[in-house]
Amino acid sequence: MAKGMLFNNYWSYICSGSGSQAQQTFTTLERIANNNIDTMVGSTGEIFKAEVEIKNAIGDGFSHSSDGFRYNLFNGSFTQTLNSNVDKKRGLRGNVIFDESGFLSEEMMQTYGAFAIVNKSFKTGKNREGKQLDDIRLKTIPDEISNQQFYISSASSTDTEFYRLYRDYAKRMIMGDPDYFVAQFDCEACFSPTVHGKKIAPLLEKSTVESAMRTNPEKARREYYCQFTSDGGNNAIVRRGVIARNEEVRKPILYNDTGKRKIVMAYDPARSRDNSVILIGEIYDDGKDGKHDKKLRLLNCVTLADIGKKNHTPMQTPDQIKYLKQLILDYNMGGDDKYSNIEGIYIDAGAGGSGVNIADYLMADWEDEKGETHRGLIDKEYSADYVRKFPNAVDKVHLIPPSKFKSIIYEATIEMLNQDKISFTATYDNKGYLTLINTNEKILNREKKKILKDLEKENISEDEKQDELNRRLLQVSCVETKMEKLSWQDELALENIDALKEELVNMVRIKRENRDSFELCAEKRNKLHKHRCADVA
Length: 537
Description:
Blueprint: H1 2-6, E1 11-15, H2 19-33, H3 45-49, E2 63-65, E3 68-72, E4 78-81, E5 95-99, H4 106-113, H5 135-139, E6 149-152, H6 161-174, E7 194-195, E8 198-199, H7 206-215, H8 217-225, H9 240-245, E9 247-248, E10 262-268, E11 277-285, E12 294-303, H10 317-331, E13 342-348, H11 355-360, E14 366-367, E15 373-374, E16 377-378, E17 394-395, E18 397-400, H12 402-418, E19 422-425, E20 433-439, H13 441-456, H14 462-473, E21 479-485, H15 488-505, E22 507-510, E23 517-520, H16 531-536
Parallel strand pairs: 1-4, 1-5, 5-6, 9-19, 10-13, 12-19, 13-18, 16-17
Antiparallel strand pairs: 2-3, 3-4, 7-8, 10-11, 11-12, 14-15, 20-21, 22-23
Helix pairs in contact: 7-8, 13-14
């Protein structure tokens, strides 16, 4: 923002793993200009806002079009967001800010990094007579501020392009190259802030970091201590970038809020050790381009831990069953007594977690806390001998023997992730709220009708009309931002899904003669669990 005001024609682009992530960063700049940062009392954002060019009488100069957020200054400077579609943005020139660059693909970083390769101080030209300008005159023209690349991120894994650049640039800076600068800050610098030498209350509490270290130590070391971690390496079944491109900024869903969601539940039980985890997802039809494409959206992840115990080991089995039944009711809201909104409940039938025994407790009809009776649930194939004993039980349970199906389901999971069939919530930053970006359909439809009316007057073909419509719609400011506060249940669900993603990227393929096996990488086997990952599969 300061450089944009101080230097003419300072062009900058904000790049992130998704358009919404880059737009979140842009929104922070907008909030600074509007003095809308809670922790910055009495800010002077109006100094910057006075330089913003307002092209629309009813606007404030900050454009929120579907082609990217943008503002222009009177001196020719501008800032614009980019999305992850690199093929549509090639050939631009300016400064590039890579936000969360530790999780960007190598192609994106190289393509957008090329925006800054041009030497802005290069000058040439001719006079009115068509003669080349002499060298002395060209040398009197002051140098321009060079285009720069800014890589901003928490630490990532050691196999990323960001880590390679981090090491390379740090070496160049140490050797004295003035074109490179690397700075690393960890959370310790935030615990004792000062203003004019006097201590003030920290923005980041130490207890927050300690809690994160207990919940997800791998993520906490990256986010708070700037420590690069190693994933599964070359044998990893999923790359962190694959998960990053399938993340969405959205709240977890704690119950069937619409009454129409089609839910699948996966339960990997445990009793004395490891984690006992229930994962909830929604099967939905993507429906893009007129095609029916089934996908899975992860809604919630619950760890059944006994918080009364020092080590937070799993709940007692009756308590786990009680909690599972309540979740079934919550996510069947809007459905009938046959659990029509529940597509299936998949339970690990391995001996370690006693999954078969747990399924036995689900067969009989049962009463909830309100005294209402609900039908039991059964796996009619696995528990065929009990179908006659429990004729009222609904066939919704699926017991999965891991020794028989483990290799098959992990292979299918890898394929679905690589095809972007599974979406995750975005990595949670522990702020207590999410910044959601939505399209205002009323404004979009109104402008669409107006553009079509104007195009009807022009003598052009239908294809040309559609292309022009799409081009003009990209310039319509119809995107709105909204801050959504989170409950403690929301925050816990987001943290559990982040832990799930951590387990996924640390799972490796181990070659066998008959069929491959899938386990945590050797250095993480005593540090991480794999029950959340098993639920995804």
